[in-house]
Every structure is written in C-alpha cells, then in structure tokens.
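Reviewers of the previous submission asked for a worked example of the structure-prediction workflow described in the proposal, so we include one complete record here. The input consisted solely of the amino acid sequence. No template or homolog information was supplied to the procedure at any stage.
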Amino acid sequence: MSKAPQRDRTWRDVESAIEQTQGKTILFVTGAVKSGTTWTQLWLDAHPQVACRGEGYFFDKFAGSLQMVCNQASQYIDAQNQLKNIGHTPFPPIGLPVVEHLLRQTVLGCLSVYGADPSIKVVAEKTPSYVLTLDVVKMIFPEAKILHLVRDGRDVVISTWNHNTRTAGQAFQQLYPTLGTFVADMARIWTEHQQPALDAREQHGDEVKLIRYEDLVARPKDVMADVFAWLDVDQGDDVIQTCIEVTEFEKLSGGRKPGEEDKTSFFRTGLPEQWREGMTAEQQAQFWDVAGTLMERLGYGRT
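From that input alone, the workflow returned the following structure tokens.
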C-alpha cells in the first residue's frame, strides 16, 4: 500500500484553523482599480490585530469554476443514475446549497492560513472586483464587513492608463491608442464599481463602510482611527502611527517623495488630483458626461 505524501498541513489542520478563524470579524476590501486598495491592504495588515492579504478572487473566478465543476459532476451522477436504474432511490446531485457551503469553507480555509492566530481579531482579504459580486459575498458571508475604497474617477482614469500602458503593452495600446479613447470606457467601469457599494451600504447599513483615497492622503490618522473603531480593534496613537509609517509613500516607492513620478512603479506618484494636469478640458467633460452624477453623490466637484 502506498503511503500518502508528507505534508506540512493536513485537512484536519485546516479544519481546526477554520474553527479558530470563523468566529472572528471577516472583512473584504473592495474598490475600482487603482483606488488605493493595495495601500489599504498594507496598512490594515500592519495593525497587530488585523491580518489582510490580497487577492483571492473567490467570489468571481473561483466561484464560477466551482459551480461549473459541480454541475459537470451532477450531470455525470444523473447519467449514471439513469444508466443503472434498478428501482432504488438515485444518488442526489451536488445541489446549490452544497456548492455555497464548499465556497464558504474554501474561503475560510484560505483565510485561516494567516488568520487563525489568537492575537488576530479581524481576518481580511482584498480583491477589488468583489464590489461587482457583493450580493454573493453577503449571501455566503452574511456576517462579513465590507470596506470600499472610493477615489476621484478622473484620477482613476489617469492612474489606470499609466498602469495598463506599463503592464499590458502592445495589446492595450492597440485597443486604446490615446488617453482620449480610454476615458469614456474607464468612466463606465469606475461607475460600475461604485454603485454596488452604495446599494450595499443602503441595504446592510454599518456593515459596509466607504472611505475616500483623498481623505487617506490628507488625514491618514483620522481615517485609520475611524476604520479601526468600526472594526473594534486597538485605535491607540502608537498603533496608528506604525500603520502610517510602515505604508508611507516614500517607503513603498523605494525612497521617492509624494509627487515624484516613476512610471515604471506600481506606486507611481502618491498624490491626488493628477487629472488637473493629466486630462484636457475635453477629456474631463467626456468623463463627467458618463460619471458626473455619481461623482457628485460621492462628494467630488467638477472643478
């Protein structure tokens, strides 16, 4: 008889870690692309009572694949039931409640890798696109809290344009040869990533919190203290100062001051209101035609 391979963890270890994790506060961090979610992940993780990682893609990529696999298995089970019909009650398919349970256990199993430590009170995961599937998130984790990052959509356009130009290369340039050709599509994407968070806040109240990138830049201590109070973890000055220092722009960028641009870096400038110089008046108007109503609702003025 062959022996099972030696492993550092077994399914029993995962089960035990899940038991230690699922009683804690579960937090998911969302937002449009280039809205400060990575920065937020890092300062959350710098808190001694919070563990935050990114990005798991559980509620979009994994959930769809899991559903597909279970559907295929159920089809095979049904085919075998019909083939071997001998008058007995057939074996049940893998129903949706089982799929949902598998999804929840998978998420908890992965969160438990870094969240089972007794000193951790909040186990968090950052996948920005979860904002598009918040109904699924709250169905599988009704107890979870949602922290959504909002950033001026015009700055999201500029930052995403630079990021995609750097990382996506020729394919992106062929699709969008100029910034002007990119503005309207990105304005729609930005809008699609804000409305679900507003809807979820209206439906779930205090379980959903929205914070603004610009406020984090201007008043990091106040914003972090508010978030930590919401999470019911230590809000002491020393703790917050550590979170600020560990994730300040100069440290994340490798020594640059805020405003010193490096187009090859993920942390490019670290400053808001890049759109004032980065977009023409025509491009600004183009963006506002698509997203202006939602921008005003979120507290941003046209000028």
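The radius of gyration is 23 Å. We consider this example representative of the routine output the project will generate in years two and three.
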